[in-house]
Amino acid sequence: MTSLLGPRGTPMVELGGERAWRQYSKGDIVCSLQWLDLRAHDPEFPEEGPVPCMVLFHAFRRMHTGAHVVPQHYAYLYGAREGKPTPHFFRGVVDACETVGFDRNDKAAQFRMMDLVVEALPDLIAMPGEQPSALEVRRHRLGIEVTARAGGTTLHSEVI
Asked: Is 160 part of a structural domain of the chain?
């Protein structure tokens, strides 16, 4: 599991691990199928709430790299009905390689990325549209947590 950190150093999103519905890896690239609330980071995204996504990221967290996200709704851009890759597939792989920290011309990384996308695409399409309730992310509340206990019993707890 890895986290992308926001400007305050707190996790913006957790990738992989318990958050993943399925997860694949090829060498130093990881593909996680999970639900992400994309509108929280891009107000113009058409769907509200957590949506099924393919998330490609480097296996070893680095400060100056990110993750490449393919929402389920846009999976058709990566594969045609006959199972053949589309022209967007190749451009998307090159962009994904650069986003996760590889050189744009690193053919070995591109082939690993292609293998991951081809392997995970059918599962992305079959992924349930609704996120299981066990994976709901509760927003962090800023403040001070106060708990009053007597004899090992919690009498009152709140965040101020």
From this structure: no
At 81 the pLDDT is: 74
* 113: in domain: yes
The answer to whether residue 140 is domain-embedded is: no
Q: Which domain holds residue 91?
A: 2-132
Write out pLDDT tens, residues 91-150: 999 999 999 999 989 999 999 999 999 899 999 999 998 887 766 655 555 567 778 888
Structurally, how many domains does the chain consist of? 1
Contact 77, 57 (CB under 8 A): no
Copy the structure tokens of residue 120. Answer: 């995970």
Cβ atoms of 49 and 116 within 8 Å: the answer is no
Q: What is the spatial distance between Cα 91 and Cα 110, in angstroms, rounded to a whole number?
A: 10
Of 134 and 158, more confident:
158
